[in-house]
């Protein structure tokens, strides 16, 4: 599903970006099967032959959107690893900030998130991949003494992906919660549990 020879220069890149944005909107709104190339080019205000200068097919542009989502999400997960030597009292804030970045990405790219996290056949693979990356981060952080050594980090990673997936769909993408609030609630739940200490 490679790209055909694309037009050179700023105009070509602008047209390509417009097509990707339009495709993301149409796929997120209508679903993969209902979206037609004619809908994408109309939304992007380009001709159908222009579409084929940049993408071989509807499948190719959809796949590029999925790949964009996957690459960006993996980058955020890799960057969320807590560095060594943090003070214990800063731990809650540091973790909250990293989860907030992920939710903010989802909020700023809602169509891409709907496509990559929920619609694409690869969404299950993407979630499995980020669960593995999160588990690797958690194991490293556990070795660095940030978390209890008797905690199964596989369970924590899988749970975290499930929580993020569900809250993104039910609270974030429909505007009921902000990234910071969701991240704060998740971190407080995972770090302190539900037990009332008073």
From TrEMBL:
It holds the Pfam family TetR_N. Keywords: DNA-binding, Repressor. Residues 36-55 bind DNA. Gene3D superfamilies: Homeodomain-like, Tetracycline Repressor, domain 2. It comes from Tigheibacillus jepli. It comes from the Bacteria. This is TetR/AcrR family transcriptional regulator. Residues 13-73 form the HTH tetR-type domain.
